[in-house]
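Hi all, long-time lurker, first post. I run a small reading group and we've been trying to get comfortable going from sequence to structure in the token notation. Rather than ask abstract questions, I figured I'd post a concrete chain and ask someone more experienced to write out its structure so we can walk through it together at our next meeting. Sequence below, copied exactly:
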Amino acid sequence: MQHHLSGLNLPEKISLKQIPTRLAGLLNSAARLVPDCFTRQFANVLLLSAGVSFASTAAAQEAALAPTPEHEQATAVISQLMQRYHYKPVRVGNDLSEQIFDRFLESFDPQKSFLRGSDIQEFEKYRRKFDDALRNGRLEPVFEIFSRFRNRVEERAEFAKNLLKRDFDFTIDESYMFDREDAQWVSSVAEHDELWRKRVKNDVLSLRLAEQSEDEILDTLTQRYERMGRRVSQISANEVFQFFVNAYTLSVEPHTSYFSPRNSENFRINMSLSLEGIGAALQTEDQYTVVRRVITGGPAALSKLVSVDDRIVGVGQGEDAEIVDVVSKPLADVVDLIRGPKGSTVRLKLLPGAAPAGSPPKVISLVRDKIKLEDQAAKSSVVEIPVGGETRRFGVIDLPTFYLDSAGLAQNLPDYRSTTRDVRRLLEELTTTDGGVDGIIMDLRGNSGGALLEATQLTGLFIETGPVVQIRDAGGRVNLEEDTDPSVAYHGPLAVLVDRGSASASEIFAAAIQDYGRGIILGEPTFGKGTVQSVVPLDREGKLGQLKVTIAQFFRVNGEGTQFRGVVPDVMFPTSIDSDAQGERSLDNALPWAEVAEADFEPWAESKSNFSHLQFRHESRYRASDSFKLLIEELETQREARAQKSVSLLESARQAEFQARSEGREEREELFRSAFGATNNDDDDEDAVPDIILDEAAFVLSDVIAEASKSR
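-- Answer (accepted) --
Happy to help. Here is the structure in token form:
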């Protein structure tokens, strides 16, 4: 949940006494939202569903890197806010200082590719001084370290360009370690040069395998390395300050972030989906632009060609224009290339995130368009399955997000859009048309959240009255969100389908249905994002930026938290591979699971179904399914790809590896996109790949109905 404190009339220079004491009261404010939970490092995610105009990087002025009085002032305010209002106050001392020091280095040199061991040794004197910087605002060590990094990048860029003048021998059996997160810093200039020789050789080989000519390779990589050096010279003091503050906030908890003045404006823009683009949230990660989210209803989602973790390495305009290499380009510049008017075409050269290291890129075409509310609204369909010689029909409600037209609600407009209103209408249509349905499946796969009010009211469509979620603030006070409407829109069999991308409001809804015994939860353990954030401006005029700070935590009506563990399904599907390495469980310093007292509520059902028997029947089906075998194969291939840390520089070996992994991959990828894509298959597409996850959910719900009939 995030809330912008927009009406606080903050002074130009804020003091702690002027920060409103009603921060805890935010939980009861009108605009209770739980938007996208995937807040990533350093708030440099830009939502490409919006056609935003950004300042040209070419116009950026290289300036001496040094802290400003505004940075000192912002540090003081942020430190006090974190200590007094964060849900998890952490003592500022030497232990925290060491974490900030390491995380600060990781923020700009995560692969230990630029700084050397001698640099780190020289800066060890500051390891236990960053806590002092937080107290007194003296940030000179921060800028000294970053200035050294900038020099090293410029040095490596020049070295890499010079390496392009030599010929590489791709018949030598050697490898390049591209994942150096756990490696040691290089100990000498010679070791540094060898690391970069292999890096450049790998860049050349990758382009050779992508069938670029020698001249094209030379031109592409020369420009890439020049951009790398130029970009670091243009990093502003505000960006360096943001690196430092977020090294602090991420050392406390992963959903608290500082937004510099410029990124504060980007963050505001990101909350709107009204302009034109491709519908993807992007982030800079090392030298790549990485897809972090595919927006339901946008061109990227509808194409089914773009997935989370894909890396964009090139962008071209129209069907014929040259594709421009964007590796090492600033994110804002990549955005400028990708965005454009509705109806125009953009081509993207992608390195699939799930593909093994060293795989060649693919090129796709997307037609830019607006993302409309109706494209993200709840939709219904019917799944039919054979059971005992007859056909059972199950209504499916696909819910990509928990949306609410808050302006229409405030104006009491009769036709304002909301999740609950739309789902109520769809339930009526499904249960009264063509003889009705045998059960309902609420499909929340990939639903990362939305309006808390809608999560509460949607639950109310399936229960009579009672609490839906408990919210505990930093002071330990617990508030209840309750359904007070005794009417029930649907009384029949219910399943809720979730996956690793279901978060926040999705988890609240699924947990309430599970706690009340109202329906069965199917799929994978959910994301585990059970915290509440508030966006606090640090001054009235926006000169200091703003802080998104965690101020509360969600708890189920049974008292258990949704944080960290998420919602564990009653029947686990076989796609739950490496669930501990996904979602909140994979984030450093995530708040741990916790519990509060159980709320006073009346369960819907007296006893629960025999889930172990349902699990057994489910496993028997998927083990006999060739499609499930292919899907699990793809998941295992992706797991192996994520675990890979090095790649061969022997051209024949690279080609052989790619050929071996390509066999059957297209079919497996289609199954994966169908199971985990942002949208369900188009029923009108005769060639659409079956959604085997959804079909299996129908079979499990059919088993639930069969067991219920036996017990009568």
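A couple of things your group might point at:
Residues 1-58+256-609 form a domain with the 2-enoyl-CoA Hydratase; Chain A, domain 1 fold (CATH 3.90.226.10).
The CA atoms of residues 52 and 267 lie 11 Å apart.
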